[in-house]
């Protein structure tokens, strides 16, 4: 990185932190801190909701996902717009009616304290882990690519977030997320158009899409009914719907964003905005990854994008074998470039040559074989090495091909996204701990100032926990990959509790508590035996289905328990 990149990076991050702390200093009470005094307009609600979900992992992993596997991941989001409508019609009016600070307060009003506590604890476990991941995931990649110390990187990101989150709470998160979304999307748009600019002169965007399509990267929709397939239109609409319904409807990191809206209508409009823009945004990020793939059809590409693996190989006895593979890849890359240029030339003459398409597929197969061989060598050197390099693809492009200044901006994008998700996680964890656990179980009532200070303390506490978890993240293998499934393990059960509360009025407290408890244990078992014990790609069940199974099991089991064992119970 050049001096100009550092200047851009530091100024961008300092502006966000100082602006957030200054704009929102002096929260007077818990309502100010947690709900932002209910002053947030709908467009800020919408941007805040989008920024909360758009973690650094979105901008690191998603382009790499598209580079390797194509556009199919977008199906993951197909159920989201439907979920936004359901939440706007049902969840938001109920939350506003009961004037709750957290989503879990409603559960005590509908059921009992025990059910509220169970849902709150499930949330704290999964969100506590997830918040640590939002720090660790970008930190490990930044440290690997830039040579920064991983522990220091975790601490820096964590401290920056804690400063403005403790200072201003939800309002600080909402205000800074507007700036962060501007930085994030500006960086992504500039990068996308630069990629197109870097392609051969006679190559149009349509030509680029044809090349991507010839390599199987433009298969957007998969109608397969195989449950082992991770991303299909069926798992996206069904599992994705339940995941989005649980995440946006019951996860306090999101509920807190739209409960800060000026009114029910403002909250609803913010979520509708998210529903309209989220799928196109993810489509665009995936398409950026596909364009990176097209770019590397004409430019040198490493055997493995993870620079740590290259360093590891150079110190081993296998380096000559690895270098031989690199030479083969270089020769293959030259052939690939020539065939792609011929293919473009014929496309410009309105002829999609099927023979050249077959040759492109054959070259991709050979390249994959070389990469797999390279991974085998890396594992010979160190069996614990991370050979999955998807998360490093986009960063490799940023560091090696973008001009001065823009590298600093893109790093600011990654860190801003990490800060955004971490800040939302911390306010959600703090508010849930303070309201659902601490305040609810105090025997003697305290002053508003006491609860405000307690909430700030819990924000600091969870910030430290997140940093500590991120710092010991190296003890766990494939930690970054967990971020896509950690929510699915817990969300189904929690969503089931809320759906029963909203729609199944005959089910009472005892039935839902035991149904949720049994369902969560069952999901743990299903996850272990159908997903965890199998290598990536060989799972017997796509993880999205855990959301559907958990919610459905909780609903059905609670109804059965209510009409059998607990039929004499009454609604509180």
UniProtKB/TrEMBL annotation:
* Alphabetic keyword roster: Cell membrane, Coiled coil, Ion transport, Membrane, Sodium, Sodium transport, Transmembrane, Transmembrane helix, Transport
Intracellular or extracellular location(s):
Cell membrane
GO CC, alphabetical: plasma membrane
Cite the CDD domains for this sequence. SLC5sbd_NIS-like_u2
Q: Which residues cross the membrane?
A: 6-22, 74-96, 117-146, 152-169, 181-199, 231-250, 271-296, 406-430, 451-476, 482-504, 511-531, 543-566
Pfam families for the chain: SSF
Give the signal peptide as a residue range, or say none if absent: none
Q: List the membrane topology term(s).
A: Multi-pass membrane protein
Give the coiled coil ranges: 308-335
- Does the record's keyword annotation contain Cell membrane? yes
Task: Kindly list the biological process annotations in GO that this record carries.
Answer: sodium ion transport
From the Swiss-Prot or TrEMBL record, what is one GO molecular function term? symporter activity
State the family it belongs to. Belongs to the sodium:solute symporter (SSF) (TC 2.A.21) family.
Would you tell me the protein name for this molecule?
Answer: Sodium:solute symporter
């Amino acid at each position: 990185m050049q001096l100009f990149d550092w200047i851009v990076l530091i100024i961008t991050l300092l502006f966000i932190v100082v602006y957030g702390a200054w704009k929102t200093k002096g929260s007077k009470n818990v309502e100010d801190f947690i709900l932002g005094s209910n002053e947030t307009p709908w467009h800020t609600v919408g941007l805040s909701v989008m920024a909360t979900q758009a973690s650094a992992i979105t901008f690191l992993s998603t382009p790499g996902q598209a580079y390797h596997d194509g556009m199919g991941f977008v199906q993951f989001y197909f159920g989201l717009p439907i979920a936004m409508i359901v939440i706007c019609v049902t969840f938001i009016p109920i939350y506003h009616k009961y004037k709750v600070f957290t989503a879990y307060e409603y559960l005590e009003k509908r059921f009992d304290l025990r059910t509220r506590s169970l849902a709150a604890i499930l949330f704290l476990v999964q969100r506590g882990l997830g918040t640590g991941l939002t720090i660790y995931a970008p930190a490990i990649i930044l440290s690997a690519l830039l040579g920064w110390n991983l522990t220091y990187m975790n601490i820096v990101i964590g401290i920056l977030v804690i400063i403005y989150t403790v200072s201003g709470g939800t309002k600080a998160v909402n205000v800074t997320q507007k700036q962060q979304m501007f930085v994030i999307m500006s960086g992504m748009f500039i990068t996308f158009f630069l990629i197109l600019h870097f392609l051969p002169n006679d190559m149009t965007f349509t030509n680029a899409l044809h090349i991507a399509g010839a390599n199987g990267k433009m298969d957007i929709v998969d109608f397969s009914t195989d449950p082992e397939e991770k991303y299909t239109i069926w798992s996206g609409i069904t599992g994705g719907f339940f995941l989005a319904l649980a995440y946006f409807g019951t996860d306090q990191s999101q509920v807190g964003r739209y409960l800060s809206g000026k009114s029910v209508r403002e909250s609803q409009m913010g979520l509708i905005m998210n529903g309209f823009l989220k799928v196109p945004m993810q489509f665009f990020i995936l398409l950026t990854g596909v364009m990176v793939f097209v770019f590397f059809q004409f430019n040198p590409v490493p055997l493995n994008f993870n620079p740590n693996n290259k360093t590891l190989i150079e110190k081993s006895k296998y380096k000559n074998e690895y270098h031989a593979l690199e030479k083969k890849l270089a020769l293959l890359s030259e052939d690939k470039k020539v065939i792609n240029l011929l293919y473009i030339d014929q496309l410009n003459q309105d002829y999609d040559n099927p023979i050249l398409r077959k040759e492109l597929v054959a070259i991709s197969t050979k390249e994959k074989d070389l990469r797999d061989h390279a991974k085998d060598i890396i594992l010979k050197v160190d069996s614990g090495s991370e050979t999955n390099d998807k998360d490093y693809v986009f960063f490799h492009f940023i560091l090696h091909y973008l001009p001065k200044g823009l590298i600093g901006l893109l790093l600011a994008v990654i860190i801003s996204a990490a800060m955004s998700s971490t800040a939302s996680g911390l306010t959600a964890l703090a508010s849930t701990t303070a309201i659902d656990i601490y305040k609810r179980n105090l025997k003697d009532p305290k002053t508003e100032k006491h609860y405000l200070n307690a909430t700030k303390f819990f924000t600091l506490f969870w910030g430290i926990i997140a940093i500590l978890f991120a710092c010991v993240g190296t003890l766990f293998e494939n930690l970054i990959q967990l971020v896509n499934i950690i929510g699915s393990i817990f969300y189904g059960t929690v969503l089931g509790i809320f759906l029963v509360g909203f729609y199944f009025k005959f089910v009472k407290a005892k039935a839902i508590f035991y149904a949720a408890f049994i369902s969560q244990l069952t999901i743990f078992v299903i996850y272990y035996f159908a997903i965890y014990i199998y290598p990536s790609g060989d799972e017997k069940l796509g993880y999205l289905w855990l959301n559907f199974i958990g919610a459905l099991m909780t609903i059905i089991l609670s109804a059965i328990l209510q009409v059998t064992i607990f039929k004499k119970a009454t609604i509180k």
